[in-house]
Structure formats: structure tokens, C-alpha cells
Design a protein that fits this description.
Layout (H helix, E strand, L loop, with lengths): L3 E14 L2 E14 L3 E5 L6 H8 L7 E6 L2 E3 L3 H4 L3 E4 L11 H11 L4 H10 L15 H13 L5 E5 L7 H17 L2 E5 L3 H7 L2 E6 L2 E7 H8 L3 E5 L3 H10 L4 E3 L4 E4 L4 H10 L6 E5 L3 H16 L1
Parallel strand pairs: 3-8, 3-9, 6-7, 7-8
Antiparallel strand pairs: 1-2, 1-4, 4-5, 9-10, 11-13, 11-14, 12-13
Length: 308
């Protein structure tokens, strides 16, 4: 049986204000197995950060159950807290100190020394820049230093909430490579992110939530394969005539800038024959590859329509 690092059952969080009651997390049952990188996805306001804060004891659940490494939290959080590293908000580092000195300050608070600081600097790829002052770091370097700080206590679980927010493509790539390395090293990484292409590149598993409820969960390949629509991309000289011919034959077709997309499974030979009989000749015929973004948009749009 797969060991679960994170498990929630019917987790619920309500906020009350003068305007009434707001449910941020609604009956969320989540399972994150040990090892690798697990994406935690949802639109803004779907309850991702609230869930993470409850797991870390930073917010109180209204009802439900949470487990970290088989220990109920927050009741047994002191038992497991040393095994968990997290970056939920932007860490506060001393801008006039070097990256190394900032880490040395953190290391002393948990009884670690210089060798551990050397190790985490190497892990996040800051060797050679560790003697630069924090204020001179790019946003990507600051995020890598934050990850290094979380790694000082050798966590078995690392929780990252939107670690690539505000980064340029170079910074995103650096963080992606760091996260992939950590997942391959045996650390379980829970990655909350809205950059779906990045998640698909780095994650082994994924959980998608909407309005505080679980919409889909499992290995990325299974979630994508089971949910995403399939089809074929068709290139023609006369797109309007091609779309009309295919629609009259009962195909679900949409026109894009330079080609048509025929939704759902089709027989390429039958489609080519149909078009050729109409005097239309195909110059491109390629399958539409399912991706995580397609699945995410399908699930969250369906969830949004249900709640209207």
C-alpha cells in the first residue's frame, strides 16, 4: 500500500464576516503519496493556500481531518514539524547580509553548521553567488535562497506555494530544475502553482481543486489521458470550405488561425477521403496532444458552471 505523506478527509474551512459566511475549503479529501513532485492546482480563490495554511497549523480547520506522515495535525504537529519545510509567504532575509550569512543565521537556530549550509547552497545552485548580498539577488535567486533555507532541516516534505510568482522565464526554469532535483532526491514536494506548463514538466502527480473541492487527482499521465478531449489538426488551403464540408458530415469542427481542429476521435483516412471527394486536399493532419492545461480548463470551467 502506498504511504501517504499528506491526507485530508472532508476538510472544511469557513470564514465569517459582517457580510455572512464564506466557505474557502469544502469537504476536501486529498492524498499525496511519498516521493516525487505533486502539483496542487486550482484557480485563484479555490482554496489552495488556505489548505496549505491549515496543514501547517497557520489556520484552524472548521471541520474534517488532516494527517502528515500518519500523524493527525494540528494536534500532533510538534511531532512532525521537523520533517516539513515550507514556503508559503515571502521569507524575510537581511538585505545587507550575503546569502550565505542569511542561511548561517537560520542554521544556528536549528543547531546546524557550516557543512549543512554548504550542502543546501549547492542543492539550489547558488554556489559562487552565496557571498553576494541578498539585496543584489534576482527574484529567482531569492526564491532559491528561500528553498535553501527550508532545506536546512532536511525535510521529507517540502511545501511550495506559488514559488514562481513574478519570475521571468529564466527564473522559472531555475526553480523548475531545483524542484525536479529535489523530487528525484527523495524529497516529497507539494507544489502549488498556476503555471500549468511548468507543472506538467516537473510533476509526477497532480490534484486539481475548484471552489474548495477536489475535481481530479492522480498521476499526471492518468489525469491527462482520462480527461482531456482528443482530436486532429487539419491543414487546408480553403479552411472555410473544409469546415463546412466536415460540419455537414457531422464532425465537431472549430477553426483556428491557420488550420481546423476536429474534436473527438476520428479516422484520419475517412476524414481525408471525405475532403478529397469535395476537391479539398489536406496539407497537414496531426493529432491534438492532450495537456494539463486542457484538463484544468475543462474541469474548472465545468465546476464554475455548476456553481452559477
Amino acid at each position: 500500500m502506498t504511504e501517504l505523506v499528506i491526507e485530508t478527509t472532508d476538510l472544511r474551512k469557513e470564514y465569517r464576516s459582517r457580510k455572512g459566511r464564506f466557505v474557502a475549503v469544502k469537504g476536501l479529501s486529498l492524498e499525496v503519496p511519498r516521493g516525487g513532485v505533486h502539483g496542487f492546482l486550482g484557480p485563484n480563490g479555490s482554496g489552495k493556500t488556505t489548505t496549505i495554511r491549515m496543514l501547517l497549523g497557520l489556520a484552524r480547520a472548521s471541520s474534517g481531518r488532516m494527517m502528515l506522515f500518519g500523524h493527525e495535525v494540528p494536534k500532533q504537529l510538534p511531532t512532525v514539524v521537523r520533517r516539513v519545510g515550507a514556503i508559503v509567504e515571502q521569507p524575510k532575509f537581511m538585505p545587507g547580509f550575503t546569502g550565505r550569512n542569511n542561511l548561517m543565521l537560520l542554521a544556528r537556530t536549528i543547531g546546524e553548521g557550516r557543512s549543512k549550509v554548504d550542502e543546501v547552497i549547492d542543492t539550489v545552485g547558488l554556489t559562487g553567488r552565496d557571498q553576494d548580498r541578498y539585496r543584489s539577488y534576482s527574484l529567482g535567486m531569492k526564491q532559491r535562497l528561500a528553498i535553501a533555507g527550508a532545506l536546512l532541516k532536511d525535510p521529507e516534505l517540502l511545501i511550495l506555494d506559488e514559488p514562481t510568482n513574478g519570475l521571468d522565464p529564466s527564473g522559472i526554469r531555475e526553480i523548475r530544475e531545483t524542484i525536479r532535483t529535489l523530487g528525484e532526491s527523495g524529497v516529497t514536494v507539494l507544489l502549488s502553482s498556476h503555471i500549468l506548463a511548468e507543472v506538467q514538466q516537473v510533476c509526477d502527480g497532480v490534484s486539481i481543486i475548484g471552489h474548495g473541492s477536489l475535481l481530479a487527482s492522480g498521476p499526471v499521465t492518468e489525469v491527462v489521458g482520462a480527461r482531456a478531449s482528443t482530436g486532429v489538426r487539419v491543414g487546408l488551403a480553403d479552411l472555410a470550405a473544409g469546415a463546412s464540408t466536415l460540419q455537414q458530415a457531422g464532425y465537431d469542427v472549430r477553426r483556428e488561425t491557420e488550420h481546423l481542429v476536429v474534436n473527438s476521435s476520428v479516422d484520419p483516412a475517412a476524414l481525408t477521403e471525405l475532403l478529397s471527394h469535395a476537391g479539398l486536399y489536406v496539407n497537414e493532419l496531426t493529432p491534438v496532444r492532450a495537456d494539463l492545461e486542457t484538463v484544468f480548463l475543462e474541469l474548472t470551467e465545468a465546476d464554475r458552471q455548476e456553481t452559477l
